[in-house]
From TrEMBL:
Keywords for the protein's UniProt record, in alphabetical order: Cytoplasm, GTP-binding, Hydrolase, Metal-binding, Nucleotide-binding, Ribosome biogenesis, RNA-binding, rRNA-binding, Zinc
Keyword set includes Calcium: no
GO cellular-component term (any): cytoplasm
Protein name in UniProt: Small ribosomal subunit biogenesis GTPase RsgA
Enzyme class: hydrolase
NCBIfam families hit by this protein: ribosome small subunit-dependent GTPase A
Binding site for Zn(2+): 245, 250, 252, 258
């Protein structure tokens, strides 16, 4: 048997990448009876048949699973934002970071279009998030700044690119891997054709090893499933201060003797981060009336 990674699932067929070879596989019947959900990103062992086809016999244990989109074994999320045009927003950056943290995925911030930005303003953003512990990469497709470093970060890993529209994700990926965004567009048109068609995530292979996840239109800013008491752990600096609160159920909003609020007052937690926390907390509480 051969081992590979499921890079696409479509119409009950699973396309498995082994080196440079792509094999269209079906799933052995016992998995269907068990109602096992095979995901893009799953590592499998398959029995090759004739004409580039195969049968998946073994599904290897998952290292991780991302719920939106459903992708297995994701190693990292590159959260991409524009340094200018459109201007970056602390709130938007924080909202994307929340879901990455709650999915227990390594998140890195990429500020693209750095050539258009005011250096002092971007420096404040970079300093803020690096102080919290996030890696921040500054890139420009126009000047080539940061492209080689981004490429090194991608090789050998399964990476989800996420971020608002208009930040230059496709151009950035195309700079890293020439022709990649063109391939993404062609695949999207093909899969999206016809009625009642489900849009699946897809892994796109990189020349130096590893994959990026093709998820056009994918949003990382939904909070319907978050429990209010879990939100603080999506903010590392808030989670670090929270144990000193008087109440172990403290939501760091209206409660007395709150160590988090004191840390904001003392400047140990950025006011912008606390404002983002309160905004999302309000949404979560509204979604869970009666909690």
């Amino acid at each position: 048997m051969l081992r590979g990674v499921v890079v696409k699932a479509y119409n009950s067929y699973y396309y498995v990448q082994t080196g440079d070879k792509l094999t269209m596989c079906t799933l052995r019947g016992r998995f269907k009876k068990e109602r096992f959900s095979l995901l893009v990103g799953d590592e499998v062992e398959y029995l090759p048949l004739d004409e580039g086809k195969g049968v998946i016999e073994t599904i290897l244990p998952r290292r991780s699973m991302l719920k939106r989109p459903m992708v297995a074994n994701v190693d990292q999320v590159i959260l991409t934002f524009a340094a200018a045009s459109p201007d970056p927003s602390f709130v938007i950056i924080d909202r994307f970071l929340i879901l990455a943290e709650l999915s227990q995925l390594n998140a890195q911030i990429c500020l693209n279009k750095i050539d258009l930005a005011d250096a002092a303003e971007i420096g404040q953003i970079v300093d803020l998030y690096r102080k919290i512990g996030y890696s921040v990469l500054e890139t420009s497709v126009k000047t080539g700044q940061g492209i080689d470093e981004l490429r090194r970060q991608l090789y050998g890993r399964i990476t989800v690119f996420a971020g608002p529209s208009g930040v230059g994700k496709s151009s950035l990926l195309n700079a890293v891997e020439p022709g990649l965004s063109l391939v993404t567009g062609e695949i999207s048109i093909k899969i999206g054709r016809g009625k009642h068609t489900t849009r699946f995530a897809e892994l796109l292979p990189l020349a130096g090893g590893g994959f990026v996840v093709d998820t056009p239109g994918f949003s990382f800013t939904e909070f319907a499933d978050i429990v209010p008491t879990e939100l603080a752990r999506a903010f590392p600096e808030i989670a670090a201060a929270a144990p000193a609160c008087k109440f172990n159920t403290c939501l760091h909003h209206k409660e007395p003797q709150c160590a988090v609020k004191q840390a904001v007052t003392d400047g140990c937690i950025a006011a912008s981060r606390y404002a983002s926390y309160l905004e999302v907390l309000s949404e979560v509480q509204e979604n869970r009336k009666g909690y």
